[in-house]
Amino acid sequence: MGLVINTNVASLHAQRALASSTAEMNSAMERLSSGKRINSASDDPAGFAIAERMTAQIRGLNMAARNASDGLSMLVSIENATNDVTDMLQRIRELAVQAASDTNTAQDREYLQGEVVSLIAEIDRVADQSQYNGQSILDGSMSGSIQVGTETGQTIGYSIASISSDNLGKIESQEPVTRMVLTDTNDTVTFFLGYDAVNDQRGIEDSEWNKEGFKDLAVGDLVTFSSNTDKTYEYLVHATTRNGDLGFVRGNPEVSVGDKIYKVDFVEEMATVEGPSLAEIDLTDNPSGALDIVSSAIEQVAGNRAEYGALQNRLEYTINNLMNVAEFTSAARSRIVDADFAAESARLAKAQILQQSAIAMLAQANASSQLALSLIR
Predict the structure, then answer these.
(1) Are 250 and 234 in contact (CB under 8 A)?
(2) In DSSP terms, which residues pair with 195 in a beta bridge?
């Protein structure tokens, strides 16, 4: 190649090499200063997309672990409150055992009942006023789910039972009932069921319906009502249709509506009936019955606490699992986005040496043009 001046090819080569080494040096310095291998999507488009998805998962897992921890905190609050209620129930049971002995006078039992009333009032106060994060937790209204995953539906459900005295201690028993069966659903018929005295029409009045158990019925309904009434009552069915009032029929009726017949059958059977609650115990009147109710209440609260304890254990395992998944996902993301300082520092040193060499060669290339002057001197 001849000696030319206008186009210094050697200088252009040196400039290109200098630009390349400078860019590599800048990239290495950026990664070393930020600690990241991917500082923009252009560094590694596929890796960037994968890392962003992993970041969303990791942050979701960390928040899910916090949610589970919040659930644990709520259950701890419930545990502490129900522990106090259990202590009060145990004291009430002691009083019931004491009252059941006939060595106590009627006055003694009144004193015992006074303490029971006070303890029940405190149980109700705990049930009504115990709160977590501004929400009542022991009045029966607390239920829902805890988000323990990063996707929709990854939840753990919970339901906290009421510990008010109205809901504790109810003992189920079998009692005779009468079930009314309505058949034929071909027309719109409304039945009203209740009791009506043989010689008294008070059962027709709304107030009497409310007191004696009158109820709106649809055709095909199964309805139970107690047959143990202290009044001489007959079963009564009142039917109406869209075309008017059909009136009252007694006994085992068949109600005609146009060309259709609706039959009402009464079936005697046994049914499960709930007994009185803790709020209704009276040591002055029936201490033995009160003892059974309080024992049932203790078992009920103990069963609830066992469920809450199982849920606590489940949430603890959930938190451990979430933290493990977040840890390994973070490690996988690190391999994609984090800079390898050993490799990047070597890359920086290499780029710096190449840059210095390119500068030196650029100077030599620029100086070579001076040789042309020696030919014309």
Answers:
(1) yes
(2) 235
H-state helical runs in the chain: 9-34, 45-99, 106-129, 206-212, 287-337, 341-368, 371-375
Q: What percent of the chain has pLDDT over 70?
A: 74
- Contact yes or no for 224/178 (Cβ under 8 A): yes
d(C-alpha 162, C-alpha 272), whole Å: 21
DSSP code per residue over 106-145: HHHHHHHHHHHHHHHHHHHHHHHH-EETTEE-SSS--EEE
Of the candidate ranges 22-31, 55-64, 73-82, the one whose mean pLDDT is the lowest = 22-31
Q: How far apart are CA 363 and CA 289, in angstroms?
A: 109
pLDDT tens-digit profile of 211-261? Answer: 333 344 444 444 444 444 443 334 444 444 444 444 444 444 555 545 555
Between the CA of residue 242 and those of 181, 245, 257, 342, what are the distances in Å? 21, 8, 10, 89
192, pLDDT greater than 60: no
Burial (CB < 10 A; 0-12, 13-18, 19+), residue 287, is buried
Eight-class DSSP state of 169: -
Q: What is the DSSP string of 253-315?
A: -EEEETTEEEEEEEEEEEEEEE---GGG--TTT-HHHHHHHHHHHHHHHHHHHHHHHHHHHHH
Residue type, 168: L
Neighbours of 76 (CB within 10 A): 13
Contacts of 185 (CB under 8 A, 6+ apart): 219, 220
Closest among 232, 234, 261, 239 to 250, alpha carbons compared: 234
Give CA 39 to chain center in angstroms: 39
Contact 237, 264 (CB under 8 A): yes
pTM of the predicted model as reported, rounded to 2 decimal places = 0.67
Of 315, 320, 318, the closest CA to residue 78 belongs to 315
